[in-house]
Amino acid sequence: MNQIAGPPALQQDIDWPGAIHGALKRAGVRQVSYVPDAGHSRLINLAHEDAAMEATVLTTEEEGIALAAGAWLGGDRSVLLMQSSGVGNCVNMLSLLNSCRFPFLTIVTMRGEWAEFNPWQIPMGRATPAALELMGVTVMRLDDAAEADEVITAAADLAFNGDQQIAVLISQRLIGRKKWVSE
Amino acid sequence: MAMQEGTMDRRDAVRDLLADRAELLVVSGLGSPSYDVFAAGDNAANFYLWGAMGGAAIMGLGLALARPCQPVAVITGDGEAMMGVGGLLTISVRKPSNLTVVVLDNGQFGETGMQRSHAGLGVDLAALARGAGFSEVVTLHDPDEVAAFRPRLQEVGGGPRFAVLRIAPGNQERALPARDGVYLKNRFREKLGIAVD
Q1: CA gap A130, A119 in Å, rounded
Q2: Is the minimum CB–CB distance between B66 and chain A shorter than 8 Å?
Protein backbone atom coordinates (compact mmCIF):
# COMPACT_ATOMS: atom_id res chain seq x y z
CA MET A 1 0.00 0.00 0.00
CA ASN A 2 2.95 2.28 -0.56
CA GLN A 3 1.61 3.59 -3.84
CA ILE A 4 1.20 7.30 -4.29
CA ALA A 5 -2.31 7.92 -5.44
CA GLY A 6 -2.44 9.78 -8.73
CA PRO A 7 -5.28 12.10 -9.62
CA PRO A 8 -8.50 10.18 -10.10
CA ALA A 9 -8.96 9.35 -13.75
CA LEU A 10 -12.18 11.32 -13.76
CA GLN A 11 -10.41 14.64 -13.06
CA GLN A 12 -8.61 14.40 -16.40
CA ASP A 13 -11.84 13.87 -18.28
CA ILE A 14 -13.71 16.84 -16.89
CA ASP A 15 -13.31 20.15 -18.74
CA TRP A 16 -12.84 22.18 -15.58
CA PRO A 17 -11.35 25.23 -17.36
CA GLY A 18 -14.48 25.26 -19.51
CA ALA A 19 -16.61 25.03 -16.39
CA ILE A 20 -14.72 27.95 -14.82
CA HIS A 21 -15.17 30.00 -17.98
CA GLY A 22 -18.90 29.30 -17.93
CA ALA A 23 -19.20 30.21 -14.26
CA LEU A 24 -17.30 33.47 -14.80
CA LYS A 25 -19.60 34.38 -17.69
CA ARG A 26 -22.70 33.72 -15.63
CA ALA A 27 -21.23 35.86 -12.86
CA GLY A 28 -20.90 38.75 -15.32
CA VAL A 29 -17.11 38.82 -15.36
CA ARG A 30 -15.92 40.92 -18.28
CA GLN A 31 -12.23 41.61 -17.67
CA VAL A 32 -9.77 38.74 -17.37
CA SER A 33 -6.14 39.48 -16.56
CA TYR A 34 -3.41 36.92 -16.29
CA VAL A 35 0.22 36.10 -15.97
CA PRO A 36 0.75 33.16 -18.32
CA ASP A 37 0.51 29.79 -16.61
CA ALA A 38 0.32 26.26 -17.97
CA GLY A 39 -2.52 25.27 -15.64
CA HIS A 40 -4.60 28.23 -16.80
CA SER A 41 -3.69 27.95 -20.48
CA ARG A 42 -7.06 26.65 -21.66
CA LEU A 43 -8.99 29.22 -19.62
CA ILE A 44 -6.75 31.99 -20.97
CA ASN A 45 -7.49 30.83 -24.52
CA LEU A 46 -11.22 30.73 -23.80
CA ALA A 47 -11.06 34.31 -22.45
CA HIS A 48 -9.23 35.55 -25.55
CA GLU A 49 -11.72 33.81 -27.85
CA ASP A 50 -14.73 35.22 -25.98
CA ALA A 51 -15.92 38.43 -27.61
CA ALA A 52 -17.67 39.40 -24.37
CA MET A 53 -14.43 39.31 -22.41
CA GLU A 54 -11.43 41.64 -22.32
CA ALA A 55 -8.29 39.60 -21.76
CA THR A 56 -5.16 41.40 -20.61
CA VAL A 57 -1.71 39.85 -20.30
CA LEU A 58 0.31 41.29 -17.39
CA THR A 59 4.03 41.55 -16.78
CA THR A 60 3.59 40.79 -13.07
CA GLU A 61 0.72 39.71 -10.88
CA GLU A 62 0.26 42.85 -8.78
CA GLU A 63 -0.75 44.71 -11.93
CA GLY A 64 -3.84 42.52 -11.91
CA ILE A 65 -4.82 43.82 -8.47
CA ALA A 66 -4.74 47.45 -9.59
CA LEU A 67 -6.42 46.53 -12.87
CA ALA A 68 -9.26 44.85 -10.98
CA ALA A 69 -9.74 47.97 -8.85
CA GLY A 70 -9.90 50.19 -11.93
CA ALA A 71 -12.31 47.81 -13.63
CA TRP A 72 -14.65 47.87 -10.64
CA LEU A 73 -14.52 51.68 -10.47
CA GLY A 74 -15.78 51.69 -14.06
CA GLY A 75 -18.47 49.10 -13.43
CA ASP A 76 -16.74 45.94 -14.67
CA ARG A 77 -16.33 42.67 -12.83
CA SER A 78 -12.97 41.03 -13.34
CA VAL A 79 -10.86 38.04 -12.47
CA LEU A 80 -7.10 37.64 -12.09
CA LEU A 81 -5.55 34.32 -13.15
CA MET A 82 -2.15 33.46 -11.76
CA GLN A 83 0.06 30.78 -10.30
CA SER A 84 0.89 30.45 -6.62
CA SER A 85 4.38 31.83 -7.20
CA GLY A 86 2.75 35.15 -8.16
CA VAL A 87 0.81 35.57 -4.96
CA GLY A 88 3.88 36.86 -3.15
CA ASN A 89 4.20 39.63 -5.72
CA CYS A 90 0.75 40.90 -4.81
CA VAL A 91 1.07 41.41 -1.08
CA ASN A 92 1.35 45.20 -0.76
CA MET A 93 -1.00 45.89 -3.67
CA LEU A 94 -3.69 43.90 -1.88
CA SER A 95 -3.87 46.86 0.54
CA LEU A 96 -5.65 48.76 -2.22
CA LEU A 97 -8.52 46.27 -2.20
CA ASN A 98 -8.70 46.20 1.55
CA SER A 99 -8.61 49.98 2.02
CA CYS A 100 -11.32 50.61 -0.52
CA ARG A 101 -13.28 47.37 -0.07
CA PHE A 102 -12.96 46.55 -3.74
CA PRO A 103 -14.54 43.22 -4.65
CA PHE A 104 -11.87 40.91 -6.02
CA LEU A 105 -11.69 37.43 -7.46
CA THR A 106 -8.51 35.58 -8.29
CA ILE A 107 -8.05 31.99 -9.39
CA VAL A 108 -4.67 30.58 -8.47
CA THR A 109 -3.15 27.37 -9.81
CA MET A 110 -1.04 25.76 -7.10
CA ARG A 111 2.54 24.63 -7.42
CA GLY A 112 4.77 23.18 -4.78
CA GLU A 113 2.17 21.11 -3.00
CA TRP A 114 1.59 17.80 -4.84
CA ALA A 115 4.29 15.72 -6.53
CA GLU A 116 6.26 18.92 -7.16
CA PHE A 117 9.40 18.30 -9.14
CA ASN A 118 10.92 21.79 -8.81
CA PRO A 119 12.12 22.73 -5.31
CA TRP A 120 12.09 26.42 -6.28
CA GLN A 121 8.30 26.32 -6.41
CA ILE A 122 7.88 24.98 -2.90
CA PRO A 123 8.48 27.97 -0.56
CA MET A 124 5.92 30.26 -2.19
CA GLY A 125 3.51 27.42 -2.80
CA ARG A 126 3.60 26.56 0.88
CA ALA A 127 3.16 30.23 1.89
CA THR A 128 0.39 31.03 -0.58
CA PRO A 129 -2.75 30.51 1.56
CA ALA A 130 -1.25 32.27 4.59
CA ALA A 131 0.07 35.18 2.50
CA LEU A 132 -3.39 35.78 1.07
CA GLU A 133 -5.07 35.46 4.44
CA LEU A 134 -2.57 37.85 6.04
CA MET A 135 -3.78 40.51 3.63
CA GLY A 136 -7.45 39.87 4.28
CA VAL A 137 -8.21 37.66 1.29
CA THR A 138 -10.57 34.73 1.88
CA VAL A 139 -9.11 31.49 0.57
CA MET A 140 -11.25 28.82 -1.05
CA ARG A 141 -10.14 25.52 -2.54
CA LEU A 142 -10.96 23.72 -5.73
CA ASP A 143 -9.81 20.12 -5.28
CA ASP A 144 -12.33 18.26 -7.41
CA ALA A 145 -12.77 19.10 -11.09
CA ALA A 146 -16.45 18.21 -10.87
CA GLU A 147 -16.96 21.10 -8.43
CA ALA A 148 -15.39 23.81 -10.60
CA ASP A 149 -18.68 25.46 -11.53
CA GLU A 150 -20.06 25.37 -8.01
CA VAL A 151 -16.91 26.70 -6.34
CA ILE A 152 -16.28 29.50 -8.82
CA THR A 153 -19.94 30.55 -8.71
CA ALA A 154 -19.85 30.69 -4.92
CA ALA A 155 -16.55 32.60 -4.98
CA ALA A 156 -17.91 35.14 -7.47
CA ASP A 157 -21.01 35.68 -5.35
CA LEU A 158 -18.90 36.27 -2.27
CA ALA A 159 -16.62 38.64 -4.14
CA PHE A 160 -19.05 40.73 -6.15
CA ASN A 161 -22.13 40.60 -3.95
CA GLY A 162 -20.45 40.19 -0.59
CA ASP A 163 -17.78 42.84 -1.35
CA GLN A 164 -14.99 40.46 -0.38
CA GLN A 165 -11.58 39.60 -1.75
CA ILE A 166 -11.62 35.93 -2.71
CA ALA A 167 -8.88 33.61 -3.93
CA VAL A 168 -9.74 30.16 -5.24
CA LEU A 169 -6.71 27.89 -5.11
CA ILE A 170 -6.79 25.08 -7.65
CA SER A 171 -4.99 22.05 -6.27
CA GLN A 172 -1.90 20.90 -8.06
CA ARG A 173 -3.31 17.39 -7.82
CA LEU A 174 -6.28 18.45 -9.93
CA ILE A 175 -4.11 20.13 -12.54
CA GLY A 176 -1.89 17.09 -12.89
CA ARG A 177 1.81 16.62 -13.14
CA LYS A 178 3.76 18.98 -15.31
CA LYS A 179 5.08 17.12 -18.32
CA TRP A 180 8.71 17.93 -18.93
CA VAL A 181 9.15 15.78 -22.01
CA SER A 182 6.86 16.10 -24.98
CA GLU A 183 5.15 12.83 -25.76
CA MET B 1 23.88 61.84 -16.68
CA ALA B 2 21.42 64.06 -14.88
CA MET B 3 18.54 65.56 -16.82
CA GLN B 4 18.03 69.29 -17.03
CA GLU B 5 15.53 70.32 -14.37
CA GLY B 6 11.95 71.11 -15.31
CA THR B 7 10.59 74.57 -14.63
CA MET B 8 6.80 74.34 -14.52
CA ASP B 9 4.88 74.90 -11.30
CA ARG B 10 3.19 71.57 -10.68
CA ARG B 11 -0.04 72.97 -9.25
CA ASP B 12 -0.46 75.36 -12.16
CA ALA B 13 0.39 72.65 -14.67
CA VAL B 14 -2.20 70.21 -13.29
CA ARG B 15 -4.82 72.96 -12.94
CA ASP B 16 -4.25 73.94 -16.58
CA LEU B 17 -4.43 70.34 -17.68
CA LEU B 18 -7.74 69.72 -15.88
CA ALA B 19 -9.45 72.98 -16.87
CA ASP B 20 -12.71 72.28 -18.75
CA ARG B 21 -12.37 68.61 -17.91
CA ALA B 22 -15.98 67.73 -18.76
CA GLU B 23 -16.49 63.95 -18.46
CA LEU B 24 -12.83 63.13 -17.88
CA LEU B 25 -12.20 60.38 -15.32
CA VAL B 26 -9.00 60.80 -13.31
CA VAL B 27 -6.87 58.42 -11.26
CA SER B 28 -4.05 60.14 -9.36
CA GLY B 29 -0.88 58.53 -8.06
CA LEU B 30 -0.04 58.67 -4.38
CA GLY B 31 1.73 61.66 -2.87
CA SER B 32 1.96 65.02 -4.57
CA PRO B 33 0.04 64.12 -7.75
CA SER B 34 -3.02 63.32 -5.60
CA TYR B 35 -2.58 66.69 -3.84
CA ASP B 36 -2.19 68.47 -7.19
CA VAL B 37 -5.33 66.90 -8.66
CA PHE B 38 -7.31 67.73 -5.51
CA ALA B 39 -6.00 71.31 -5.48
CA ALA B 40 -7.19 71.72 -9.07
CA GLY B 41 -10.75 71.10 -7.83
CA ASP B 42 -12.31 68.17 -6.04
CA ASN B 43 -14.52 66.04 -8.26
CA ALA B 44 -16.34 62.76 -7.74
CA ALA B 45 -14.70 61.57 -10.95
CA ASN B 46 -11.28 61.77 -9.27
CA PHE B 47 -9.92 58.67 -7.62
CA TYR B 48 -7.06 59.71 -5.37
CA LEU B 49 -4.60 56.98 -4.52
CA TRP B 50 -2.94 57.18 -1.12
CA GLY B 51 -1.03 53.95 -1.57
CA ALA B 52 -0.77 51.19 -4.18
CA MET B 53 2.50 52.63 -5.43
CA GLY B 54 3.17 51.45 -8.96
CA GLY B 55 -0.51 50.77 -9.61
CA ALA B 56 -1.92 54.09 -10.84
CA ALA B 57 -1.44 53.64 -14.58
CA ILE B 58 -2.65 50.06 -14.59
CA MET B 59 -5.68 51.04 -12.53
CA GLY B 60 -6.35 53.56 -15.27
CA LEU B 61 -6.21 50.71 -17.78
CA GLY B 62 -8.89 48.72 -15.92
CA LEU B 63 -11.06 51.83 -15.81
CA ALA B 64 -10.44 52.70 -19.47
CA LEU B 65 -11.39 49.16 -20.57
CA ALA B 66 -14.55 49.36 -18.49
CA ARG B 67 -15.56 52.81 -19.87
CA PRO B 68 -14.42 52.78 -23.51
CA CYS B 69 -16.62 55.74 -24.45
CA GLN B 70 -15.21 58.04 -21.78
CA PRO B 71 -11.78 59.64 -21.61
CA VAL B 72 -9.56 58.50 -18.74
CA ALA B 73 -6.40 60.20 -17.46
CA VAL B 74 -3.89 58.91 -14.96
CA ILE B 75 -1.87 61.69 -13.32
CA THR B 76 1.11 60.41 -11.41
CA GLY B 77 4.72 61.09 -10.48
CA ASP B 78 7.89 59.84 -12.14
CA GLY B 79 8.77 57.62 -9.18
CA GLU B 80 5.33 56.01 -9.06
CA ALA B 81 5.32 55.49 -12.83
CA MET B 82 8.76 53.92 -12.69
CA MET B 83 7.73 51.46 -9.99
CA GLY B 84 4.94 50.30 -12.27
CA VAL B 85 7.01 50.30 -15.42
CA GLY B 86 5.83 46.81 -16.36
CA GLY B 87 2.30 48.16 -16.29
CA LEU B 88 3.25 50.66 -18.99
CA LEU B 89 4.12 47.69 -21.20
CA THR B 90 0.79 46.06 -20.35
CA ILE B 91 -1.03 49.27 -21.32
CA SER B 92 0.87 49.66 -24.55
CA VAL B 93 0.07 46.16 -25.78
CA ARG B 94 -3.58 46.46 -24.68
CA LYS B 95 -3.93 49.81 -26.49
CA PRO B 96 -6.84 51.48 -24.67
CA SER B 97 -7.58 54.30 -27.10
CA ASN B 98 -9.27 56.43 -24.41
CA LEU B 99 -6.40 56.46 -21.88
CA THR B 100 -3.77 59.12 -21.28
CA VAL B 101 -0.98 58.61 -18.76
CA VAL B 102 0.42 61.92 -17.49
CA VAL B 103 3.68 61.81 -15.57
CA LEU B 104 4.71 64.78 -13.46
CA ASP B 105 8.46 64.54 -13.71
CA ASN B 106 10.61 66.50 -11.29
CA GLY B 107 13.35 63.92 -11.14
CA GLN B 108 12.81 63.49 -7.39
CA PHE B 109 11.03 61.38 -4.83
CA GLY B 110 9.27 64.41 -3.40
CA GLU B 111 7.32 62.72 -0.64
CA THR B 112 10.29 61.06 1.01
CA GLY B 113 12.99 63.69 1.22
CA MET B 114 13.82 64.76 -2.31
CA GLN B 115 16.09 61.87 -3.17
CA ARG B 116 16.95 61.91 -6.82
CA SER B 117 14.76 59.49 -8.80
CA HIS B 118 15.68 57.33 -11.78
CA ALA B 119 14.29 60.03 -14.06
CA GLY B 120 16.48 62.56 -12.26
CA LEU B 121 19.44 60.29 -12.80
CA GLY B 122 18.89 60.20 -16.52
CA VAL B 123 16.18 57.68 -17.40
CA ASP B 124 14.12 59.13 -20.25
CA LEU B 125 10.51 58.23 -19.47
CA ALA B 126 9.23 59.44 -22.82
CA ALA B 127 11.72 57.25 -24.66
CA LEU B 128 10.66 54.36 -22.49
CA ALA B 129 6.99 54.91 -23.35
CA ARG B 130 7.87 55.25 -27.02
CA GLY B 131 9.75 51.98 -26.88
CA ALA B 132 6.84 50.31 -25.17
CA GLY B 133 4.61 51.37 -28.05
CA PHE B 134 2.32 54.09 -26.73
CA SER B 135 0.45 55.60 -29.68
CA GLU B 136 1.42 59.16 -28.83
CA VAL B 137 4.21 60.36 -26.57
CA VAL B 138 4.91 64.00 -25.75
CA THR B 139 7.12 65.93 -23.35
CA LEU B 140 5.66 69.25 -22.21
CA HIS B 141 7.97 71.96 -20.91
CA ASP B 142 5.84 75.06 -20.38
CA PRO B 143 2.24 76.19 -19.78
CA ASP B 144 1.63 76.89 -23.47
CA GLU B 145 2.49 73.32 -24.33
CA VAL B 146 0.24 72.06 -21.55
CA ALA B 147 -2.65 74.19 -22.83
CA ALA B 148 -2.09 72.93 -26.36
CA PHE B 149 -2.12 69.32 -25.18
CA ARG B 150 -5.20 69.67 -22.93
CA PRO B 151 -7.83 68.83 -25.60
CA ARG B 152 -6.11 65.50 -26.23
CA LEU B 153 -7.25 64.38 -22.77
CA GLN B 154 -10.83 64.51 -24.04
CA GLU B 155 -10.26 62.14 -26.94
CA VAL B 156 -11.52 58.58 -26.71
CA GLY B 157 -9.60 57.53 -29.80
CA GLY B 158 -5.95 57.59 -30.72
CA GLY B 159 -4.59 56.43 -27.38
CA PRO B 160 -2.93 55.29 -25.34
CA ARG B 161 -1.16 58.61 -24.94
CA PHE B 162 1.77 59.34 -22.66
CA ALA B 163 2.67 62.87 -21.58
CA VAL B 164 5.67 63.82 -19.48
CA LEU B 165 5.26 67.19 -17.75
CA ARG B 166 8.62 68.65 -16.81
CA ILE B 167 7.86 70.29 -13.47
CA ALA B 168 10.19 72.13 -11.13
CA PRO B 169 11.71 70.21 -8.22
CA GLY B 170 10.43 70.98 -4.74
CA ASN B 171 7.18 70.38 -2.90
CA GLN B 172 4.15 72.60 -2.57
CA GLU B 173 2.00 72.99 0.47
CA ARG B 174 -0.03 69.85 0.91
CA ALA B 175 -3.64 69.84 -0.21
CA LEU B 176 -5.13 66.71 1.22
CA PRO B 177 -8.10 64.96 -0.40
CA ALA B 178 -10.30 62.45 1.44
CA ARG B 179 -8.45 59.33 2.51
CA ASP B 180 -11.42 57.02 2.94
CA GLY B 181 -11.12 54.64 0.01
CA VAL B 182 -14.65 53.28 0.33
CA TYR B 183 -16.04 56.81 0.11
CA LEU B 184 -13.87 57.66 -2.89
CA LYS B 185 -14.89 54.44 -4.63
CA ASN B 186 -18.60 54.83 -4.00
CA ARG B 187 -18.84 58.47 -5.04
CA PHE B 188 -16.90 57.69 -8.22
CA ARG B 189 -19.27 54.87 -9.15
CA GLU B 190 -22.28 56.94 -8.22
CA LYS B 191 -21.05 59.69 -10.52
CA LEU B 192 -20.96 57.13 -13.33
CA GLY B 193 -24.54 56.14 -12.59
CA ILE B 194 -23.62 52.77 -11.14
CA ALA B 195 -25.95 51.77 -8.31
CA VAL B 196 -24.22 51.81 -4.93
CA ASP B 197 -26.04 49.16 -2.98
Answers
A1: 19
A2: yes
